[in-house]
Amino acid sequence: MRYRDDNKVEAIFDATIQLINEIGFSDTSISKIAKRASVSAATIYIYHENKEDLLYKTYLKIKGKMSEEMFQGVDHTRTVYERFEAIIRNYVDFIQSFKEYFLFLEQIMNSPLPQKWCLEDTASQFQPIFEMFEDGIRQEILKKEDINMLIAYSILPIAELLKTHLKNGTMLNNKQLDSAIKMSWDAIKA
Amino acid sequence: MRYRDDNKVEAIFDATIQLINEIGFSDTSISKIAKRASVSAATIYIYHENKEDLLYKTYLKIKGKMSEEMFQGVDHTRTVYERFEAIIRNYVDFIQSFKEYFLFLEQIMNSPLPQKWCLEDTASQFQPIFEMFEDGIRQEILKKEDINMLIAYSILPIAELLKTHLKNGTMLNNKQLDSAIKMSWDAIKA
Amino acid sequence: MRYRDDNKVEAIFDATIQLINEIGFSDTSISKIAKRASVSAATIYIYHENKEDLLYKTYLKIKGKMSEEMFQGVDHTRTVYERFEAIIRNYVDFIQSFKEYFLFLEQIMNSPLPQKWCLEDTASQFQPIFEMFEDGIRQEILKKEDINMLIAYSILPIAELLKTHLKNGTMLNNKQLDSAIKMSWDAIKA
Amino acid sequence: MRYRDDNKVEAIFDATIQLINEIGFSDTSISKIAKRASVSAATIYIYHENKEDLLYKTYLKIKGKMSEEMFQGVDHTRTVYERFEAIIRNYVDFIQSFKEYFLFLEQIMNSPLPQKWCLEDTASQFQPIFEMFEDGIRQEILKKEDINMLIAYSILPIAELLKTHLKNGTMLNNKQLDSAIKMSWDAIKA
DNA sequence: CATGAATGAGTCTTCATTCAT
DNA sequence: TATGAATGAAGACTCATTCAT
């Protein structure tokens, strides 16, 4: 008996993300993914039940990677602001290091797929964000608003900004990033 | 000869938006659109060169509708803050009145299609936003930041918030909207 | 009541021949013909029952034109050889003056369409050829062979030769034509 | 994996030729070919890139078969006349044994397809004919004419004659064949 | 584990034709 | 007479998926 060939699995994962970013959802077929991954289309079905399952697993893997990167060095011993800044800087690093992952996620999140998948479960992965905001509210450092609102005003604008930069092929410099962090903080601070 | 039937054109437009929102890009086929619009698939090709052209025209039409709604009552005689609030409230009205249009746009904007279409031209439709922010900066009311940044911190969070509400089937109440507007202003004011 | 518009009829006729020569049978559609003829597809159905009828009428018209050209100045007062040479020279003139007609005919004649159309009737148009050969045989000037055979050895080679020239974009010069006529005569003379 | 099924390939080949001869170019569709070959339409695309590629490969295969048959027993040790007669008799055998192949070729050669395919390369397959004629001219046995002309007067009439017979459902008897060979020789001999 | 072969169902698109004007 | 609109049927081709090896 032979073992799971992680090279192939990885190649399929990469090909999927690349193609969806390059040509979009509706033009990305299993056979194109297979070709890009230098693998037979049938091989994909060894590791994934069907096309949607492939997308879902790809999505989960990226989301995992993202939360992993996002919360490095973020723990309860730090102040709310320290955690806030660390999370944002980690997020920016993630987006810039794994552009394709990020754009893939954006595309998925704006499609009807998440509805189909009932995605509450993944929320748990982002627990540290909720905790940080809750701590901030409790300590009266942050505005007493719904946490989704705090996210929408502090984290999402950063993502949006980077998205624009990625699409224009430009880079966000340190000064701009500092400004952005300041604006995020201004928007949510009490 | 028969005359151009605008009902058919409209039905195709509606069906396209509905289906893309319901089942997503890759599952929306011309024949499904035709069926939903109670029209022959061939009829679609009378009014649209091909599938992508159909999407593009649909996109343009919605974008037009959106800018039309967004700037009602917004003119240079108003203060920066008045214009700011009006635009945001118009935008919120648009999103809530034409949920499907909004979600369609989000889906398009996060796909690789816009890159293909080279969309700078449509920026002109949103001139009033740029003017408002430029005026605000000049009058030292607003932060001296890149305008994309101001947009990312004041307008997009609102969209994001509403997106969440739409997907959850909840409504944004007046109090929440007032808070949001305040947060937007806090984020960008000098 | 309006009258038959011969310009339109002619434009359709021309467009049909052009397209069939350029892109072939299977790629020539009514709508392409209509576009080339600057006419609505529906207009074609005023003058022709259906697509096959269009082809058939086009074929007949060309065949008529061809026999008309081929027998100019050919009558019983001339000797067999005179008639023979005249017919061949007329035929060469026809092919060179109306290349498209000729190539269209060749294409039709090598398709299964003639079988469908039962084309004995058009043979009568080429009566003078048969008479000439019959006279030649009776006068023991020509070989006592089946007339189709005499045609195959005297007239068809000329057509074949010109076909090659047409496809290469070259011209048959007078010397070559004289040689060809000599070879034709050698092949069939007693 | 499953192995390449040459029966399927052959069935597709046969079906293509049959249909093109029976109903012509424009009515022969991939799905009809598939049905006739008892194969899924998709299977055709495993072996052929597209419809035109299918036609082209079919054409090449037939042309190969034809040259193979045509030059059996034809070599330089034979006299020019011996080679001439052998080639013609082989050709006649080929046409009568593989009527469908022959008619298919005629139909292709009179369509615009060959122009698209730039067919000089296949000329090399028919080298022995050119060599025979060149030898004949050098030995002053044959007329000093362009070789295409010699072909047009000696070989093509035979093809034409057989075409007529095939379409009428009649057979060329030995006496007729002998006459034809004599006429061919008369036309080209010095 | 891996894959080329195979296919029914589906894709987008064009077809020949008719109809209302 | 002339034609844009309309469409069911069919076109070529690709899809996601399965199977035999």
Map the helices and strands.
The structure is a homotetramer of 190-residue chains.
Chain A: H1 6-23, H2 30-36, H3 41-47, H4 51-70, H5 80-97, H6 99-109, H7 113-117, H8 120-123, H9 127-138, H10 147-154, H11 156-168, H12 174-188
Helix pairs in contact in A: 1-2, 1-6, 2-3, 5-6, 5-9, 5-11
Chain A binds a DNA duplex (21 and 21 nucleotides) through residues 1-5, 8, 29-31, 39-43, 45-46, 50-51.
Protein name (chains A, B, C, D): TetR/AcrR family transcriptional regulator
Keywords (chains A, B, C, D): DNA-binding
Domain HTH tetR-type (chains A, B, C, D): 6-66
Structure description:
Four copies of one chain form a homotetramer. Chain A is built from twelve helices and no strands. The first copy, chain A, has 190 residues and is mostly helical. The first copy, chain A, folds into two domains: 1-47, Arc Repressor Mutant, subunit A, CATH 1.10.10; 65-188, Tetracycline Repressor, domain 2 (Orthogonal Bundle). Chains in contact: A-B, C-D. Chain A binds chain B through residues 21-26, 28, 106-107, 109-115, 143, 145-146, 148-149, 152-153, 156-158, 160-161, 164, 167, 176, 179-180, 183-184, 186-188, and chain B through 21-26, 28, 106-107, 109-115, 143, 145-146, 148-149, 152-153, 156-158, 160-161, 164, 167, 176, 179-180, 183-184, 186-188. Chain A binds a DNA duplex (21 and 21 nucleotides) through α3.
